[in-house]
Amino acid sequence: MKEVIVSKFGGSSMADYEAMTRSAKIAINQNSNIVVVSAVYGVTNLLVELSKKSCDSEWNDIEPLLKEVRNKHERILEKLPSQNELKEKVNKHLEELNTLVKGIFLLKECSARTYDSLLSFGERLSSLIFAEVVKENTEKDTQFFDVRKVLITSDDFNKATPQIDIISKKCDQHLYDAKYGNVLFITQGFIGNSIEGHTTTLGRGGSDYSASLIAEGIGADILQIWTDVAGIATTDPRIVKEAKLIDEITYSEAAELATFGAKILHPTTLSPALRSNIKVFVGSSYEPEAKGTWIKTKVENAPLVRAMAKRTSQTLLTLSTPKMLDAHGFLFDIFKVFNDFKISVDSITTSEISVAVTIDNDVTHNKKFIDELSKLGKVKIENDLSLVSIIGNEINHTPNLARRIFSCLDNINVRMICLGASKHNFCFLVNEKQSDDAIRFLHKEFIS
Ligand code: ADP
Ligand code: ASP
Ligand code: MG
Q1: How far is CA 410 from CA 129, 404, 406, 415, 418, in A?
Q2: How far apart are the C-alpha atoms of 288 and 199, rounded to whole Å?
Q3: pLDDT per residue over 282-320, tens digit each?
Q4: Do the Cβ atoms of 200 and 274 come closer than 8 Å?
Q5: CB-based burial label for 99 (10 Å; 0-12, 13-18, 19+)
Q6: Of the candidates 38, 101, 295, 355, which lies 20 to 30 Å from 410 by C-alpha distance?
Q7: Given this model, what pLDDT does residue 84 score?
């Protein structure tokens, strides 16, 4: 029986008519069952800018952004041979977007729910156009599909939690033809629907996660992530040009890479795939014939150092109080506050009277959260740091590794170290401005 395939194409694979055509041909040649797409390259960033400017700028500053969103889509439409009906649909979406932005501008307020509605236009528009590009390139039956019928989430707008059981039932209900009916479905990444019926999003870069959830929902065999690099590399090729492509990598290593900042995969992409035993492929839509990377449970080669990544915009929050001396339950009190505010901690160290944790920079704007923590002790905040991590195997059982890491870092000051929790990860905190250098030094020492 044919393998069931879900293919996801990111923003750069949707950049213009040529990129869309290339991506459509890949989906057709691969015999994909469902294609999940991101917004046209740059559109989500424009929508984010619109959400801010609509609250604090003049209409004159807002209009050019709306025009840019329109132009990006119309430039693609112009190249499509059959476009009248589609043009009308796209225009209707753009008009709706204008009305929404006008509403935000008049009210000078953009709630989390409104923000998600605004951002959803990116994927809704790109998928509409891409569905037509696919149709132009195949005789096969194709169908545009609104993912909000199946991708049900919590109502935590901006970073909603998928409701896996409901998604699975809805996929059985709505995506039968994609799996068994030889119809190629085209749908949106990133967006979902709350149980009450409001549009939600899964967080920036969330289309990878959407694709994995849909793959799980329909019981797919393979999830393909098509992007602008020919697979997962030993580090971000934008930082180290000679980064090497990895042929195969385990779920655990790839998940650590994603969690610790490698933009190639959204951090939660691999959970559904791992849970449901779906093989994951990462490849380039610009170079589809290249080998790409396979993410699997077992791989032949398990090097000590596989890759390195950085997670930017980190804050080190230190909470100190003499009350911690000889006390128990103190960490419980601290993490209860994090839990109440749904704030996730990336790494942690403790001393006798202090606890230091890393969190995303923007969390420190949450005054209520800081006030609540301050009731437990003195809070100190250091912004603009980066968490640099080395991902590999047997990291916590290898003598001399720490010596090699810190010797190669030259005079970069290391603000905090985390080692021991995972055999796949060693991470440390440095000033943001020095993080690329840290990666270059490490890559030279362990890979190049
Ligand atoms: P898409 O729009 O297709 O989702 P992204 O920009 O989100 O693409 O992710 C692809 C980018 O991830 C690459 O262009 C690359 O700069 C970056 N990246 C970061 N770490 C890695 C890595 N280890 N291997 C490959 N690419 C990486
Ligand atoms: N378009 C969304 C973003 O730019 C989701 C994605 O591309 O994965 O964040
Ligand atoms: Mg991405």
Answers
A1: 50, 11, 8, 14, 19
A2: 33
A3: 999 999 999 999 999 999 999 999 999 999 999 999 999
A4: no
A5: exposed
A6: 355
A7: 87
Q: How far is CA 30 from CA 7, 110, 224, 311, in A?
A: 9, 41, 10, 33
Q: What is the pLDDT of residues 37-91, one digit of tens each?
A: 999 999 999 999 999 999 999 999 999 999 999 999 999 999 998 778 999 999 9
Measured from CB, residues less than 6 Å from any atom of ligand 2 are 10-11, 38-39, 44, 122, 189-190, 204-207
Q: Which ligand is nearest to the CA of 10?
A: 1
Strand ranges, E, within 202-304:
222-227, 248-250, 279-284, 293-296
Query: What whole-number distance in Å separates Cα of residue 146 and Cα of residue 124?
Result: 8
Residue 228, pLDDT score: 97
- What ligand is nearest to the CA atom of residue 209? 2
Long-range contacts, 297-303 (Cβ 8 Å, 24+): 297/250, 297/251, 298/250, 299/248, 299/249, 299/250, 300/248, 301/248, 302/250, 302/393, 302/394, 303/392, 303/393
CB 248 within 8 A of CB 294: yes
Q: How many helices (H) and strands (E) does the chain have?
A: 14, 17
Q: Are 131 and 183 spatial neighbours (Cβ–Cβ below 8 Å)?
A: no
Specify the residue with its C-alpha closest to ligand 1, atom 1: 10
The residue written with tokens 């870069």 in the block is: 205
Nearest to 261 by CA among 192, 312, 329, 224: 312
pTM recorded for the entire structure: 0.95
264 lines ligand 1 (CB under 6 A): yes
pLDDT of residue 383: 94
Amino acid at 377: G
pLDDT along the chain (448 residues), means of 10: 95 98 98 98 98 96 98 96 89 98 97 98 98 97 98 97 98 96 96 98 98 98 98 98 97 95 96 96 97 95 96 95 84 94 90 92 90 96 96 92 93 91 92 98 96
CA distances (Å), 338 to each of 161, 204, 259, 382, 383, in order?
17, 22, 19, 18, 18
The pair of structure tokens assigned to 140 is 């096969």
Indicate whether residue 263 lines ligand 1 (CB < 6 A).
yes
- Which of 207, 227, 247, 266 maximizes ligand 1 atoms within 8 Å of its Cβ, making it the mutation to test the pocket? 227
**pLDDT value at residue 261:** 94
> Residue 379 pairs with which residues in a beta bridge?
319
